[in-house]
Structures are given as structure tokens and as C-alpha cells.
Amino acid sequence: MLAASLVHGHTQGILSAAVKPGADPATPIDAVQDQFLHACAPAVRVDGLIALGPIHSTKFDDVPLDDLDADLEAWSVAGLDFLEASIRVKPKDEDDVKELAARAERRQRQLKDAVRGRGVPLAEHPENKTRRILTALAKANA
Fold it and tell me: Is the pTM of this model over 0.70?
């Protein structure tokens, strides 16, 4: 799945303050993040955001799985518990779009095989992690 993100550090406590009752959860979004959001998802509006949670997660980067270095994230939220394994496939100078896509598909198959080889079943949910979490949180806070 193609994904994009913009990572930004915040001073300690700013995110906790933004999700307190009566606070504006959009406060920590700076100009660069706002520009990124408008460029990638112009229909998304940040005014009127509602803080949902909590979400408990733990991330481990560059975990060796066979010949891969995977990022692992364990999530627990609103009755959902799951582990996400992901890898990054970066383009090489000689890659064209087809070559990059083919290499990414091969690496994805390797990741699935490595996970299955450790006895971990793969989820068969059609929704992505973000949709599953937001849906569970919305139901829990309804």
C-alpha cells in the first residue's frame, strides 16, 4: 500500500495538552504540516477535530526477518490488538516505475512469507489500520 507521511517533532506535553477536554486538537499542526495535508488530502478539514483515544502502541525499527529489515508496530486500542509489519522499498537510480513496482511486490511477498513462517496469521481485513482504528474509536466514543 502506498503511504505518505510528514514527521515532525513537538515539545514535550504539547500533544497531551491538545487532546484535553475543551482544547483544539488541531493546535499542534504547524504550517508545513498544514500545507502537506492540503496537498495530499485537500478534502480533509482539521477544524472541528475531535480527540479520540487512547491508543497504545510500540514501534521497533529494523527488526531482522529473514533477509529483510522490518519495522514492527504493536497496537492496542478500543478492543483491537494487532501487529503491523512493514518494509520500505526505495527506488534505485536505474529503476523505472515497472522495475520499482516489481521489486516492491517481491519484497512484499518475502515479508508475508517471513511473517507466516513464524506462525503469525495475516489479517484478512479489507480496511487499512487507520480506518480500523478510527472506526473502533468512533464506536467506543459514540
Answer: no
